[in-house]
Amino acid sequence: MTDSTSGDTAWALTAAITQLRRSLRSSVREEFAWESLPMAQVEFLQRLDREPGLRIGDLARKHRMAVNTVSTLVNQMLKAGLVTRETVPEDKRAVMVVLTDEGRERLRAWTQANERRISAALAGLTADQRAAIDAAVPALGALAERLDQPA
After folding, report:
1. In sequence order, what E strands does 19-88 have?
2. CA spacing 20 to 30 A to 63: which of 50, 54, 127, 137?
3. Residues 21, 27: Cα–Cα separation, whole Å
4. Strand partners, 87
5. Is 109 exposed, middle or buried (0-12, 13-18, 19+ CB in 10 A)?
6. Is residue 33 scored above 70 in pLDDT?
C-alpha cells in the first residue's frame, strides 16, 4: 500500500468512525431523554467496568487526559451517583474510583440502547455488507489496542 493510499484509508476510517460515534451519541440521546452523560464519562464508566479499582491518575494516563480534567469529570460523576471513591486497600492514602450500582445501570442502559441502534442499522444492510463488518471487527479491535499504546 502506498503512502497516498494508506493516508486515504486512514482518513476514510477516521471519517467513518467520527460519523458512527456522532450518530450513536445522538440516537441514544433521542431514546433516553434523561441521558446527559458526556462521552468522556461514558468512556470512564466503560473503563471502570472493565478495569475496576483505577485511580484518577490511572484514568488520566489511559485516556491521555490531564489529571485535573479527569478529576473534574470524576467529581461530576460522584455528584451524579455514578461512581464513589474508595480507599485503596494496600495504600490507605490513595483512593480509587469505583462504579456504583447506578453507574453500572446507566452503562448497561447506554450499551443496550447502542446495541439496539446498531442491530437495527445492520439489519438494513446487505448480507455482504454485514459479513464485511463482521470480518472487520477483530481488526478494528486490534487497531484500537494499537492506538492505545504509547507512541
Report:
1. 83-88
2. 137
3. 10
4. 95
5. middle
6. no
pTM of the model: 0.79
CATH topology of domain 24-148: Arc Repressor Mutant, subunit A (1.10.10)
Phi then psi dihedrals of residue 87, to 5 deg: -70, 140
Q: Where are the domains of the chain?
A: 24-148
* pLDDT of 29 higher than 80: no
Q: Which of 27, 41, 26 is nearest to 106 (CA)?
A: 41
Rounded-to-integer distance, Cα 51 and Cα 56, Å: 13
- Which range of 39-43, 79-83, 115-119 scores highest in mean pLDDT? It is 79-83
How many helices (H) and strands (E) would you count in the chain? Answer: 6, 2
Which of 2-6, 72-76, 100-104, 122-126 has the lowest average pLDDT?
A: 2-6
